[in-house]
Design brief:
There is one protein chain. This protein has 376 residues and is mostly helical. It is built from 14 helices and two strands, in the order H-E-E-H-H-H-H-H-H-H-H-H-H-H-H-H. It has helices at residues 5-29, 47-73, 92-109, 114-120, 124-135, 142-165, 172-203, 207-229, 248-257, 260-285, 288-308, 316-332, 337-341, 347-375; strands at residues 32-33, 42-43. A two-stranded antiparallel sheet has the order 1-2. A hairpin with an 8-residue loop joins strand 1 and strand 2 (42-43).
């Protein structure tokens, strides 16, 4: 069945805004400008300020949710499921995970290339799968375990590619630290995703509302944390002149001296809002499988643009790493099933996998209903 124009628009919007999100953040890191004092020009290294902007973009999803809800309620027959009422504080723990993981990733992005950053984020599959088994009692099928194993192999290849090729643009110590920070951030993001899955199943929360609620908590808490960060010494770990954890005033002064930094930050903020909206819409209008494919293509776009702009050099190991990660992601998310379904010898295996996952979804939904009934 051919896609409609609206579905093509959503797919293009997700791919474009998802790529802009990482590229604009990396672009901001590449600027140099004077600060508030008589300091010489120095790099724009303000990961926590960038994270605040990202949470502002997520927070805007809450406004989008209520606009869509109001528009839907004006229809003769409303179709939008607003979900059950819930205590917004339930999303405070995952919001704090999001805040911590995102801040760490922005620190890491300044130490490594945009393409390696995006590829290494694939590690979230490994930790999400393991944590869902440990804390949600989920049973992964054989193809998902194989996908996790192949993803780990892909991460090792990408790490080797960084080791051999990244020294041209970053110090080797920065590359190693950045890659390890990205992996650490994926552990935190995996905890966030497991918590979100538990709460979303339990309270039937609309995804836009969940993203917006987390964005609100992340924006408020991190904005307040910028105050003590202004006084916390960080030594050589920080690249700002005062060598504190985060110098927000220096960031604003640099933006004043180099307005293009503001354009990069706005690109990050706006793109994350549209990316979340487009991703949820693609899942609803097309399929979750299509969303996973587009997310993988986003890595390819970021890599191609980075090469075209001269931000990094081509290395064959990155090609191998990307392909291996793509195979691991495809297996974990079941993208291989449409191909196997066409082979008579594999139809039974595909049906068994789909039945197992369907049973697992029903179990999680049932657990959520039982818990909700117990609380009421």
């Amino acid at each position: 069945m051919a896609w409609t124009q609206y579905q093509l628009f959503l797919a293009g919007l997700m791919l474009t805004t998802g790529s802009i999100n990482t590229l604009s953040a990396k672009w901001a890191d590449m600027f140099t400008a004077r600060g508030c004092r008589d300091d010489p020009e120095h790099p724009f290294s303000h990961p926590f300020v960038q994270a605040v902007g990202m949470f502002l973009g997520e927070f805007s999803c809450l406004a989008v949710f209520y606009i869509l809800l109001c528009h839907d309620r004006r229809r003769p027959e409303p179709r939008m499921n607003a979900g059950q009422s819930f205590n917004p504080l339930l999303f405070f723990p995952p919001a704090m995970c999001d805040m911590t993981g995102t801040s760490i990733m922005y620190v890491a992005l300044s130490m490594t290339s945009a393409s390696s950053f995006q590829m290494l984020r694939g590690a979230v599959i490994v930790f999400t799968g393991l944590l869902s088994v440990a804390f949600l009692g989920r049973r992964l099928v054989a193809s998902q375990w194989l996908g996790i194993l192949i993803t780990i192999m892909g991460l090792l290849v990408v790490g080797l590619a960084d080791f051999f090729s990244g020294k041209e643009t970053h110090k080797l110590s920065d590359i190693i630290t950045g890659d390890l920070l990205i992996i650490l951030a994926q552990i935190i993001v995996a905890v966030q995703m497991v918590l979100e899955e538990k709460f979303v199943y339990k309270h039937d929360v609309h995804p836009l509302r969940a993203v917006g609620t987390e964005g609100f908590f992340g924006f408020c808490v991190l904005s307040l944390l910028l105050i003590p960060m202004f006084f916390i010494p960080a030594g050589s770990f920080s690249n700002n002149p005062r060598q504190v954890l985060e110098d927000a005033l220096d960031a604003f002064c640099q933006i004043g001296h180099q307005p293009l930094i503001l354009l990069a930050l706005l690109g990050n903020t706006v793109s994350i809002a549209f990316f979340n909206f487009a991703g949820i819409s693609v899942t609803k209008e097309i399929s979750a499988t299509t969303r996973m494919v587009l997310d993988s293509l986003r890595t390819l776009v970021i890599w191609a643009v980075s090469l075209a702009l001269g931000w990094e050099t081509f290395h064959g190991l990155q090609v191998l790493g990307f392909v291996v990660l793509l195979v691991g992601t495809a297996l974990y998310n079941g993208l291989h099933r449409p191909l196997l379904a066409r082979m008579p010898c594999c139809v039974g295996m595909v049906d068994a996998d789909e039945e197992s996952e369907a049973t697992e979804r029903e179990r999680l939904l049932a657990d959520g209903r039982v818990q909700a009934d117990d609380e009421s």
